[in-house]
Amino acid sequence: MSYADLSQARLYYVIDGPADAPVLVLSNSLGTCADMWARQIPELSKHFRVLRYDTRGHGKSSIPEGEYSFEQLGNDVAELLAHLGIARAHFCGLSMGGPTGLWLALARPELIGKLILCNTAARIGSAEGWSARIAAVAEQTLENMAPALVERWLTDGYRAAEPGLTRVLIDMLRRTPDAGYSSNCAALRDADFREQVASISAPTLVISSTHDLAATPAQGRELAGAIPGARYLELNTSHISNWEQPEAFTRAVVDFLTE
Hints:
Helix content: 40-55%
CATH superfamily: Alpha/Beta hydrolase fold, catalytic domain
Mean pLDDT: 98
CATH architecture: 3-Layer(aba) Sandwich
Number of strands: 8
Number of domains: 1
């Protein structure tokens, strides 16, 4: 297993694909880990050197004390790229991974080639909602909350048709440390990029989902409309679109990055 000891965190990461291919960074959603991209790797690794990592507080990465910010989460990625000797990369982030990409595109634009923002928004949820989520985790634990949370991640039809793959996501969420999850909720509570995204210069694709309640299609269209030249794609899925429609999602990523 590969770890990078950075200034504030220890990140677990995994790399697939040719060493001489363009680098694509994949950034996980809240409550998952690098494994959430497993269904994309066989195809993406034909075209890219794919770098997946566990966001701090998730998976095999460390859980620094205190609340996190997207400045910290973005700097983790910048330091990971420096650690690996990567000067520039494409970036694809889903849900919480989206604001990480927004921060990088705004604060460290020299690092970002093309940007893909999936099931996300410039402002996800409300401060009150994230504070309530933090309180709920403290009272109930992710172990008990996971099944209900995953109901919001996938459509009813998918969960009925694919109970095994649904269970994989439930178990991934259950393995997420409560402390790390809550510290990342604080980053989402405090983040609002709506006044800044018009300054993004990276070519951008926004992917939303018709049935996503966490980051709605309206928010996705708003985000795409605010970023100069951004494209918008909507899939007939819920919040974890890459899991529910892996072929369509992967094809959209490959087409956008290789055209």
